[in-house]
Specification:
The chain has a 7-stranded antiparallel β-sheet, with helices on both faces. Helices cover 30% and strands 21% of the residues. It is globular. The protein is built from 7 helices and 7 strands, in the order βαββαβββαααααβ. It starts with a strand and ends in a 6-residue tail after the last strand. Helix 1 crosses helix 2 and helix 3 runs antiparallel to helix 4.
């Protein structure tokens, strides 16, 4: 499955753009519904990954930010940054010792994510998602194993529980590399006013 890294910022794109231009060496930023935007940095540029940028973006913008990194469908890492300091880190599958085959999520705290609510919060869905306990049958492992089949399903449920619409959640799972590699598809989905080109990135349109 696709690996991606994005940063959710509770600020309109036009307001966040100056800070993003100042700190992101290469990437894109997209609108993400009323009052929110997303940064999609080129994570292959040194020092330009989401966890490196989350602190400067939070301090420069004056709002908390949520950095999400999903690796190959297996693991979701979420970090909340406020005023340049990491305030919370969630890991759906933290590294364990060789003798511990079972990996349970670390730092399950639904309250840590409430600053990123875009509407009414579904507390049950949020708690269940962070605990790696899907509510919907289609997200469960077909072999009966506990947890989500794919980590992006967990990420989807976290953002859905925070009141984000489907379009925003889809954008939160876009990686810069894939956006850069599919300009025609991107142009069909996005209006040019919903995209800001950052740093050395090429304009896809």
């Amino acid at each position: 499955m696709t690996t991606y890294g994005t940063i959710l910022i509770p600020m309109p794109l036009e307001q966040a753009a100056p800070v993003l231009r100042a700190v992101c060496a290469a990437g894109y930023a997209t609108a993400a519904g009323p009052g929110f935007c997303l940064a999609h940095p080129d994570r292959f540029v040194e020092g330009n990954d989401i966890f490196s940028l989350a602190g400067p973006i939070s301090s420069g913008s004056g709002v908390p930010v949520l950095a999400a990194f999903q690796y190959d469908g297996d693991r979701l890492e979420l970090e909340v940054w406020r005023d340049g300091v990491r305030a919370h880190r969630y890991d759906s599958r933290p590294p364990r010792g060789d003798d511990d085959a079972d990996s349970t999520p670390a730092n399950i705290d639904p309250a840590a994510f409430l600053d990123f609510a875009a509407g009414p919060v579904d507390s049950h869905r949020l708690s269940s998602a962070l605990a790696d306990t899907p509510i919907d049958e289609e997200e469960k492992d077909v072999d009966g194993d506990p947890g989500y089949v794919w980590a992006q399903g967990l990420h989807w449920d976290v953002l859905q529980a925070l009141g984000h619409p489907d379009g925003t959640i889809q954008r939160a799972q876009w990686d810069y590399r894939h956006m850069h590699g599919a300009p025609q598809t991107l142009a069909k989905v996005l209006d040019s006013t919903e995209l800001v080109v950052l740093g050395a990135a090429e304009n896809p349109f």
